[in-house]
Write a structure and sequence with these properties.
Chain lengths: ~180, ~190
């Protein structure tokens, strides 16, 4: 079961605060680009290049802002990349400690079954397409639910408010249309 | 080395808390977005409020380095990207952070989300010159008030730390005022 919202909210707020107190606000979606760049450079060496001026790339996106994404991909042992790997380890351990996610849920979430029955292939296709659109949108916006919505609004960033308004404006009608049953 | 240690500690704490509040569970995300259970919304609003209050109060007390703030630019692409992310978030029940955490907790669909996400990010990398040429990516950083010690332009001419504190309190109030559900019938899905 999930934590009561008052306890959960305070705990999550403390994590946001610890991040900005000790290092910087939390963000996740950039690391999909970094992993893409690492994979890309492995499959097709030369994507990331070391020059006298530093690390850069023949891809304009990786080369932007002084090649900061190319640099992170050249050295994956950096704060933001390790952060996401640690998130996975933290979630894995937490899920294990509360008894693990049940076999049925792991295969298909209850709300999917309530709306679409036992159709795993359809669900995985939906998750795949959702992931594609989410990350394309996040990179266009320059951040995701973590970087814009949580870290952004917490810092009174105007971009965070605009992002949150746009995300919910699309998410609520899509969820009501696709998932009319509660599950 | 300290930086890596902090990444491990804060990252693990973030992943564990996302798991415990139900954010790594697509059922809870979708129930929030189809408005049948706002429990997770209340959790997130309270978290933003608590984070905001601690950060701005800490800045006022001189305990939190203003230089640790990182405000993103405002441009038209933020709104377009937000709409896209929102649609995919509702369809899949995952966002980037909760997707990787859900995959780690053993959910098969979350791995498909990650593969789709890697391809979506790669597609953006390739289409970046197009977006750049449209001019929709140009803009400037901006905060609500002028944060002392930071050089972000402000939307309104008020001290940013006081405004930030007030916004934090507002988020906490909204978290308490928001009902457990806005759509559907009967008792909300119970939480522990």
């Amino acid at each position: 079961m999930v934590l009561n919202w008052k306890i959960g909210g305070v705990l999550l707020g403390l994590v946001f605060f610890a991040a900005v107190l000790l290092v910087k606000p939390i963000g996740v979606s950039t690391q999909f680009v970094i992993l893409d760049a690492i994979i890309g450079d492995t499959v097709s060496p030369g994507l990331i290049t070391q020059t006298d001026q530093g690390v850069t790339s023949n891809n304009a996106y990786l080369a932007k802002s002084g090649g900061k994404y190319a640099k992170s991909a050249a050295n994956p042992l950096n704060y933001s990349f390790i952060f996401v790997l640690a998130m996975m380890a933290g979630a894995f351990t937490s899920a294990l400690l509360r008894g693990g996610v049940g076999a049925d849920e792991r295969r298909l979430p209850a709300i999917w079954c309530a709306n679409y029955g036992d159709t795993p292939v359809k669900r995985y296709a939906m998750a795949f397409m959702g992931g594609f659109v989410v990350l394309y949108g996040a990179r266009l916006a320059g951040g995701c639910t973590s970087g814009h919505m949580m870290s952004g609004t917490m810092q009174t960033a105007i971009s965070g408010y605009i992002f949150a308004a746009a995300a919910f404006a699309a998410a609520i009608p899509v969820a009501m249309k696709l998932y009319p049953q509660e599950g | 080395m300290t930086t890596i240690l902090l990444a491990i500690l804060i990252g693990a704490a973030f992943g564990a808390v996302l798991d415990r509040i139900g954010a790594t569970n697509p059922n809870w995300i979708i129930r929030m977005l189809n408005l049948t259970s706002l429990h997770l919304m209340k959790t997130i609003l309270l978290a933003i409020g608590v984070g905001s209050i601690l950060m701005f109060a800490g800045q006022m007390a001189g305990l939190v380095d203003v230089g640790h703030m990182s405000v993103k630019a405002v441009y038209v692409g933020v709104a377009i990207g937000g709409l896209l992310l929102g649609a995919g978030w509702a369809a899949s029940g995952y966002c980037p952070g909760t997707g990787v955490c859900a995959a780690a907790s053993g959910r098969y669909d979350a791995w498909f989300f990650i593969i789709g996400g890697l391809l979506g990010a790669a597609a953006y990398m390739l289409s970046y010159p197009f977006w750049k040429a449209t001019g929709l990516l140009s803009g400037s950083t901006m905060t609500l008030g002028a944060v002392p010690g930071a050089d972000y332009p402000a939307l309104i001419n008020l001290p940013g730390d006081v405004v930030g504190l007030a916004m934090g309190v507002l988020f906490v109030i909204v978290a308490f005022v928001l009902p457990e559900r806005l759509a559907g019938q009967g008792a909300p899905v119970a939480a522990q």
